[in-house]
């Protein structure tokens, strides 16, 4: 991809989010560049999902702004998101992958080719005609990844994609995430799972109580956390609110 074509860097410029008088995120300034996955890490309730939704454009910040490639506003159609619990259509696995490709206006031959490739990428080719909602939880999450990957987004947001999966299904999802990252998709993913962050992260955004505490290369974060809160989290201990 030529540099001029990219929607990155993605910037959060002093964003905050409050709802009904409750402050959920404050003063988040962050730049996300091309490269290995950016992992947004933090305990339950830290504000990770809300931050991801703000970055993707599903939520609008109540302060500050999100900018793509230096311009404020949403980067239409060049980003996709996979949620903790995927919502699948009551159709075959293949039809679930094809549907957004049709909405995107792609020609039929291109849709078919992309669906075949995406189902192969996630190891679901043999289950392509199976009703999507009868797939196991892990298979459904892999299908959600195939559906997103088929859109060939430049940036893929993943919100705790392994939250309800067992270790084998988690590992399968991580392998897919690794394969997508290796082919140039920028992954921005939330997790509270330290092991997963260690396996996948290029850089870590550590969030606690609605604020960014650290944003550093993963190696630095895990070896020498700069804040006491991050060190506490890395020891697996409870953080003060
Ligand atoms: N629309 C909303 N209205 C009110 N409170 C909300 C809303 N969305 C999120 N919250 C609250 O904001 C806080 C952060 O939520 P968020 O889902 O971003 O946390 P998280 O870090 O992703 O946690 P988890 O790891 O448990 O998914 C939580 O206390 C949550 O209850």
UniProtKB/TrEMBL annotation:
<dbReference type="InterPro" id="IPR027417">
    <property type="entry name" value="P-loop_NTPase"/>
</dbReference>
<feature type="domain" description="ABC transporter">
    <location>
        <begin position="10"/>
        <end position="234"/>
    </location>
</feature>
<dbReference type="InterPro" id="IPR003439">
    <property type="entry name" value="ABC_transporter-like_ATP-bd"/>
</dbReference>
<dbReference type="InterPro" id="IPR003593">
    <property type="entry name" value="AAA+_ATPase"/>
</dbReference>
<keyword id="KW-0813">Transport</keyword>
<keyword id="KW-0067">ATP-binding</keyword>
<protein>
    <submittedName>
        <fullName>ATP-binding cassette domain-containing protein</fullName>
    </submittedName>
</protein>
<dbReference type="InterPro" id="IPR017871">
    <property type="entry name" value="ABC_transporter-like_CS"/>
</dbReference>
<dbReference type="GO" id="GO:0005524">
    <property type="term" value="F:ATP binding"/>
</dbReference>
<dbReference type="InterPro" id="IPR050093">
    <property type="entry name" value="ABC_SmlMolc_Importer"/>
</dbReference>
<dbReference type="GO" id="GO:0016887">
    <property type="term" value="F:ATP hydrolysis activity"/>
</dbReference>
<dbReference type="Pfam" id="PF00005">
    <property type="entry name" value="ABC_tran"/>
</dbReference>
<keyword id="KW-0547">Nucleotide-binding</keyword>
């Amino acid at each position: 991809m030529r540099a001029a074509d990219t929607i990155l860097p993605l910037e959060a410029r002093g964003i905050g989010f409050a709802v009904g008088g409750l402050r959920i995120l404050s003063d988040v300034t962050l730049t996300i560049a091309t490269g290995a996955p950016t992992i947004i890490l933090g305990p339950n309730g830290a504000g990770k999902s809300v931050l991801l939704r703000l970055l993707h454009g599903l939520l609008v910040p109540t302060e500050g702004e999100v900018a793509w490639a230096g311009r404020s506003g949403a980067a239409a159609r060049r980003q996709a998101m996979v949620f903790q619990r995927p919502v699948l259509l009551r159709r075959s696995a293949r039809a679930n992958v094809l549907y957004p490709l049709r909405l995107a206006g792609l020609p039929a031959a291109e849709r078919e080719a992309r669906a075949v490739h995406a189902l192969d990428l996630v190891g679901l080719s043999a289950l392509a005609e199976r009703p999507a909602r009868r797939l196991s939880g892990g298979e459904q999450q892999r299908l959600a990844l195939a559906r997103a990957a088929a859109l060939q987004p430049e940036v893929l947001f993943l919100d705790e994609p392994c939250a309800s999966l067992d270790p084998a299904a988690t590992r399968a999802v991580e392998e897919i995430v690794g394969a997508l990252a290796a082919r140039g998709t920028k992954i921005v993913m939330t997790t509270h799972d330290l092991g997963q962050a260690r396996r996948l992260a290029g850089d870590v955004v550590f969030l606690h109580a609605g604020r960014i505490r650290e944003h550093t290369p993963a190696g630095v974060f895990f070896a020498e956390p700069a804040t006491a809160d991050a060190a506490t989290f890395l020891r697996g201990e409870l953080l003060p609110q």
